Amino acid sequence: MSFASAASRNVQMADINITPLVDVMLVLLVIFMIAFPALTQRLPFDLPQSGNPTPAQTLRLLVDAGDVYRLDGIAISRADLGRQLAAVATRTPAPVLQIQVSPDAEYDAVVQGMATARKAGINDVVMVDR
Q: Considering its fold, how many domains does the chain have in total?
């Protein structure tokens, strides 16, 4: 009998500890709750169309020292630049403006030229090197 009572004292419980399992499931639940709205949100974008697209006109604007602007090699004032770009912006397809900046040009002149192009309706602006 003493043998049977000693064996009954060494019996271990074979229960599973579910606390770590619950912790992992709650973390996954929070991650999915945060990630789900980002997965269902759509981003609008235009896909290229097949066929023969007409090439866009490219304009080159040089911003030089002393607030001098040159549109396709012709010196022009900022007011005239806005009028010229507004006239060109109505064309189809929309023109691309390449801005080339002289190393001696002031930062304000470059920003004013870009703002003038934006106000004129030029949406495609590219900065180029010499």
A: 1
Q: Is 123 part of any domain? A: yes
* Bridge partners (DSSP) listed for residue 96: 58, 124
Give me the residue label for tokens 């900065």: 127
Report yes or no on 72 lying in a domain.
yes
Burial class (CB in 10 A: 0-12, 13-18, 19+), 85: buried
Residue 13 to residues 2, 21, 25, Cα–Cα distance (Å): 22, 19, 25
Mean pLDDT by 10 residues, the chain (130 residues): 58 80 95 87 77 77 89 88 88 85 90 90 85
Q: 12 lies in a domain?
A: no
Which residue, among 83, 89, 80, 100, has the nearest Cα to 57 in the 3D structure?
89
| Bridge partners, residue 101, by sequence | 63
Six-digit token string for 106: 């002031």
CATH number at 66 reads: 3.30.420.270
Residue 47 falls inside a structural domain: no
